[in-house]
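Note to self: keep these together.
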Amino acid sequence: MADDKFDFDKKAASWDDNPQRVRLANDIGGAIVAEKILTPAMDVLEFGCGTGLLTLQLSPLVHGVTAMDGSRGMLDVIEAKIRDQGLKNIKTQLLDPSKGGIIEGAYDAVISSMTLHHVQEIGPLLAQFHRVMIPGAYLCLADLDPEEGKFHGENPTVFHEGLDRQMVEKILTRTGFYDVRDKTAATVEKTLPGGETATFTVFLITARKK
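Structure:
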């Protein structure tokens, strides 16, 4: 989500120029599709949609997607893609819970990819997800496994150097989710400053609302 110290709005126009970022979104999308939970009748919320790299993969598989982000610049990019491709089942919404925004609606699935590490307190956000999900709805969360802060380097919007799967799963269970599962969705290799190569893993946690 957007942060005053790190301007996602200004980075949005060139966001998709990073092939590693595109590949990661493709891998996460493939992992979600492999779960076989998406159906043509579903209305889906994608929280932290960014420029729509994941949104555009999943939208053909469902009835509709609400693509939500806290960055106006990111939404400008996805909205241009929607217009250019004549897509009819994606709507966008500018909202940032960290600034008091309240998620509304009723969804068959909520998806969030590579966003939780930008959220200082994930418990309240997961509770918001739970509130707008219909009974039996699916939750899909993709994010970094714990690392040493090397994935982003110096970035003031990052509150978590990865997230422990078991910690997230415990919060989900306390919030009222069940059938909580996890798997590795992607592996990312990055060349760090100084030439060192590091490997990072990205999890996909799925759960359902009772």
